Amino acid sequence: MSDRLTPERRSWNMSRIRSKNTKPELIVRSLLHHLGYSFTVNGPKNKCLPGKPDIVLPKYQTVIFVTDCFWR
Fold it and tell me: Which tens digits make up the pLDDT trace of 3-56?
């Protein structure tokens, strides 16, 4: 299967795809906030964690990875 787009156009398309603050991530953060959980998002402490978690619950030593269907 060949790519129908030029490399320049593909690069432009991919540069427009967000990797932070996506709609599913905002929904999960809103729900956690509503339930009263304290969490961090993209903070300096998160950089030392493997896998770049989206949300960190330090009190519970838990991380949350929010994934979404990339190819819609």
Answer: 888 999 999 988 888 777 888 899 999 999 999 999 998 766 667 788 888 899
CA pair distance 6, 12, nearest whole angstrom: 10
Matching residue, tokens 């949350």: 64
Q: Sign of dihedral through CA atoms 46, 52, 71, 11?
A: positive
Spell out the domain ranges in the chain.
Answer: 21-72
So what's the architecture of 21-72 in CATH?
3-Layer(aba) Sandwich (3.40)
Cα pseudo-dihedral 15, 22, 40, 46, rounded to 10: -30
